[in-house]
Amino acid sequence: MKQFILFLLKIAAVLVLTMILLDVAYTAVYLQSNRRSKIDYLYNSKNQNYDVVFLGSSRVNNHFVPKLFKEQGYKTFNFGITRSRLEESALMLKLMVERNYKIKNLILQVDLNINTNDHSEDIRSLFMPYLHQSEIIRAHYKDIPEYHELLYVPFYRYMHYDARVGFREMFLSLLHKKTNVLDNDGFYPLQSIEGKMVPADLSKYYPKRNVAYEEIRAICKKQHINLIALTTPMCMSTINRDYFKHIREVYPEIYNFENAVTEDKYFATCGHMNQAGAEFFTKVVFNAFFKPKTKS
Amino acid sequence: MFFNSLHFAIFLPIVFILYWFVGHKSKINQNYILIVASYYFYSCWDWRFLFLLIFSTLLDFSCAIKIEQSNTPAARKLWLWLCLTVNVGFLGVFKYYNFFAESFTALLGSMGLHTNPLLLDVILPVGISFYTFHGLSYIIDIYYGRIKSEKNFVDYSLFVCYFPLLVAGPIERATHLLPQVKKRRKFNFNKAKEGIYQIIWGLVKKVVIADSCANYANDIFDHYNVMNSYSLLLGAVYFAFQIYGDFSGYSDIALGTSKLFGIDLLRNFNYPYFSRDIAEFWRKWHISLTTWFRDYLYIPLGGSKGSKASIVRNTFIIFLVSGFWHGANWTYIAWGLINALYFLPLLLLNRNRNHVGDFTLGFNLKSLQTLFNILTTFAITCLAWIFFRSKTITDALEYCKRMFTNGEFTQQYFTIGRYNYELIMLVVLFAIVEWNSRTKIEPISGKYSWLKLSLCLAALLALGVFSDYKEFIYFQF
Questions:
Q1: The pLDDT of residue B5
Q2: What range does the domain containing B69 cover?
Q3: Pairing mode, strands A102-109 and A272-273
Q4: B48 pLDDT band (50/70/90 cuts)?
Q5: Are the CB atoms for A55 and A106 separated by under 8 Å?
C-alpha cells in the first residue's frame, strides 16, 4: 500500500507540474496576442487616444460604423462585443483607463442589457488569461464564486473556460491567426436574411437599476469622459416596445434611439440592423451629438 | 454522480480508504462498505429508484433459491417465469411502454382510427437495462443448473449493485463476479496501478475524444440539412469516435476503478474499429452484451445448429433485440437490422469466423488487403451509426441521401464556431495510439510509462472538454 500511495503522490506531482507548465505557456501566448479578440487587442495596447469609443453588445458591434466618424475627423473604435453585457463593458472601460487610454466620448448601448445584472460567461472567459497580470481584472472578479480557484489553481481558468480560451484558441493565437473582429475598426456588418422578420419579444423585459452601468457612469465622471448612453433600434414589430420608455424612468439621462430606424429593409434580424441600417443609424447618432471636424 | 465529475473524484478516494484501511480485515466488512458506497452512488441519481434496485435484488435472490429448492420441473419453470416476467415487466414499463403505446396509436391512426394513447410520465431509472440483464443471467444460469444459488444475501447484493458496473455495465456473470466477492480481497499494487492507468486512459477517451467529437457531431447531426457531403461524412466519423470514446472510456474507468478494490470485471471492448469484418467487430464491441445475447438468446433459440434459415432467423433476432435494448426508438431497431444485413453475407458464406486471431501489418499485399478490410468495416459501421444517432429514421435516410448526393467536399464553418475538418488530426492521432497499443488493455503501461502518463494528463488538461459537460451516452440505456 505504501508503494501505491507513493505512486499516487508521484502522479499528483506530475499533474500539478503539468498544470503549472500549461498555465505558464498559455498565458505567455495570450500576452503576445492582439489580433484575435477585442479583449486581447485592448489588453495588449497602451496609450491610445480616441475621440469616440463605442461599448456594448452585438447591438453596438453591428450598429456603429467607425469609418463614418473617421470621415468627419473623429478617431474612433467600436469595442462592442457580441453577447457582452454591461458587466463586461464596465471592465473593458476600466481596462482602457488602466492601459492609459485617453477617451473624449463614450457611446454606450444601454437597452436590452439593462434588463439584467448578470454577466456573460463567454466574454468573461476572454479576460481570464490576464487575471494574474491585471489588478483591475482581479478586483473586478474578486466576488465571483470561483474566484479563488481561477486565481490560485494553475490552469483551472483555461479548463473552466476551455471553449473560448482553451487549446484551440491558444494554438491559433500562437500561430498569430487573425480574426475579422478588428476589421472595419471593430464594426461587423450584417447582411439581410431573406424571409419574414421574426418579431423580438420583450414582454418579459423590464429595466432595472444596473450596477455595471452606474459603475461606468462613475468612471466616466472621474476620467472626464463624456458618456452618451443610448438605446439602439429594433424592428417595429417588437413586442412590448414600451420597455424602451421605461428605461428612461430608471435612468433619465439615457437617450432613446430605438425609433431612429424604422423600416424593415434596414434590419438583418429584428434586433440587429444590416449594413445599410448601421450606416444610416451611425449618421443619425453622429448628427445628434457631434459636428464634423473636417470638411468633406 | 458521473465518473468524470468532481463528486466521483471525492467519493472514490473515501471509499478506497474505508475499504483498505477500515474494512480490510474481513470479506464481510469489505462487502458492506462496497454495498453502502454503491447504494449511495446510485441514490445520487434518484434515491427513489434505489427501492427498485433493492426489490430486483431481493426478487432474483429469492427466486434463485426457490428454483433450486423446487422438486418438479414445473415448479422450477414457474419460479423462473415469475422472475423473468417481473424483471422484464419493469424494463417494459419504464423503458418501452410509451414507445409501444405511441407506435400502436400511430398504427391505428394509419388505419383511420384516431386515439389518444395513455402515456406514462416516468423517467427511466438509470442502469435498469444493465442490472436487469445482470440479474437475468444469474437466474437463467441457476435454472439450467450451471451454477448454485447464492445463499448469502450480502454477497449477492454486491454482485448486483457493485457501483463500478451498476449504471452502464459491463454486464457481469455470476460465474465470474460472485467467486470474487465471496473471498477477502488483498491489496495488489500492480493491479491497483493498472487500474489507475486504465482510469486515466478512460478519462482521456471520454473527456478528450468523445466530448470533443460530440461538439462537432451534435452540430452536424442537428443541422444535417445545411451540411455538405464532407461535413456529413465527418459527422458520421466523429460520432463513431464519440460513441466509442464515450462507452469504452466509461468501461475503462469502471474496470480500472474495480481493480482498485481488487475485483476484475469483464472486458467490454477490444479495439473494435480495427476489425476486419463485421463479425469480428461484434466480437470486440460491447462484448458483455454481445455474449449475453449469444448465451441467453441466440443459443436457446437454436444458435448455429439447424438449417441455414433458422441460423439466419436467430441472427436477425439477436441483432434486432440488441438494437431495441438500446432504446425505445425505431432508429435503434434500424441500426440492429442494418448490422444483421451486414452480417448476413458472412453467415451465408460461412465466413463469420474467418477473422478470430491477432494480426500484424507489414509491407506486403496481404497487409494491404487487411487494411482495406479494416477501413471497409469501419466505413459500414459509420453508416450504421448514422441511424443510431439520428432522431428519426427519416432524418437518417435524409442524412445519408444528402451525404451521397450533395457532392461538395469543402470546408464548412459550424454554428459552434469551428470548421468541419478541425478534429481530424485529433481523431487520427487517437487511432494511431490505439493501434500501437492494441495488444494491451491501455497504452500507458510498459516502457516510458511516466512519459506516457504525463502526456495523457497533459492531453486531459489541455484538450479535454470541461465547460460543456456531457453525460455518458450509455447511461440513458
A1: 83
A2: 6-186
A3: unpaired
A4: confident
A5: yes
Of B292, B52, B27, B284, which Cα lies nearest the Cα of B179? B27
Smallest CA–CA distance from A166 into chain B, residue = B462
Query: Is residue A4 within 8 angstroms of chain B, CB to CB?
Result: yes
Cα gap B470→B209, rounded to integer Å: 12
pLDDT digits (tens, 9 = 90+) for B313-337: 999 999 999 998 888 889 999 999 9
Is residue A172 less than 8 Å (CB to CB) from chain B? no
Question: What 3-state class would DSSP assign to B136?
Answer: helix
Task: Determine which of B201, B461, B463, B466 to mutate to test the interface with A (most A C-beta atoms within 10 Å).
Answer: B461
- Which pLDDT band holds residue B15 (cuts at 50, 70, 90)? very high
Closest chain B residue to the Cα of A164, Cα to Cα: B467
Overall number of domains in chain A: 1
Instruction: Judge contact between A66 and A79, C-beta under 8 A.
Output: no
List pLDDT tens digits, range B437-454.
998 999 999 999 999 999
Indicate whether B470 belongs to any domain: yes
- Is B326 known to be catalytic? yes
The SS3 assignment for A103 reads strand
pLDDT band at B477 (very low <50, low <70, confident <90, very high): low
Closest Cα in chain A, distance from residue B466 (Å)? 6
Contact B422 A15 (CB under 8 A): no
Q: What is the pLDDT of residue B415?
A: 87
C-alpha cell at A292: 464634423
HSE-CB at B362 with a 13 A cutoff on CA atoms is 5
Please say if the pLDDT value at position B141 is more than 90: yes
In chain B, the percentage of residues whose pLDDT exceeds 90 is 74
Which residue ranges of chain A lie beneath pLDDT 70? 294-296
Q: Which three cell numbers stand for residue A169?
A: 484558441
Q: Are residues B82 and B123 in the same domain?
A: yes
Check CB contact of A6 with chain B, cutoff 8 Å.
Answer: no
Specify whether the CB–CB gap between A158 and A26 falls below 8 A: yes
Owning domain of residue A225? 2-289
B187, B418, B467: residue with CB nearest A162: B467
